[in-house]
Specification:
Length: 134
């Protein structure tokens, strides 16, 4: 008799409610694979692709406006990579405090690479600006 009660009790457990979908769930929203689509990521992707396309165009121009175009393109690319470096630092901190040390290390390395690229782009913009003045 006792065994019948346990089985009946186990069968009457309430069904867990499903979590709400969409933006109500922390970490929810639209995704491409494991990567969430956020407005910041979309803006940075558009700025990165746009500045790279602008630099590619500026390389093909063969007149007096080529150096100012390259300088401004390098400066914008430096701003984009600087923003990526800051985003990497914030993401590294969040991953570290959540106990995801492997992800934090990867984000720190990628953010450092983005910071070095940003410094190189700013240096190129300054050198090109100095060449323009000469």
């Amino acid at each position: 008799m006792e065994r019948a009660r346990q089985t009946q009790h186990e069968q009457q457990r309430p069904i867990a409610a499903r979590p709400p979908t969409g933006s109500q769930v922390p970490g929810g929203g639209p995704r491409i694979g494991p990567i969430r689509i956020t407005p910041t990521r979309v803006v940075l992707l558009v700025a990165l692709v746009g500045s790279l396309a602008y630099l590619a165009f500026a390389i093909t121009v063969r007149d007096a406006s080529q150096i100012p175009m390259l300088s401004s393109g390098a400066a914008v690319l430096g701003i984009v990579f600087g923003a990526l470096a800051v985003l990497g630092a914030v993401s590294t901190y969040r991953a570290g405090t959540d106990g995801r040390s492997g992800q934090a290390f990867t984000l720190a390395v990628l953010g450092g690479i983005a910071a070095m690229i940003a410094a190189g782009c700013f240096a190129a913009a300054i050198v090109l600006g100095l060449v323009l003045q000469a």
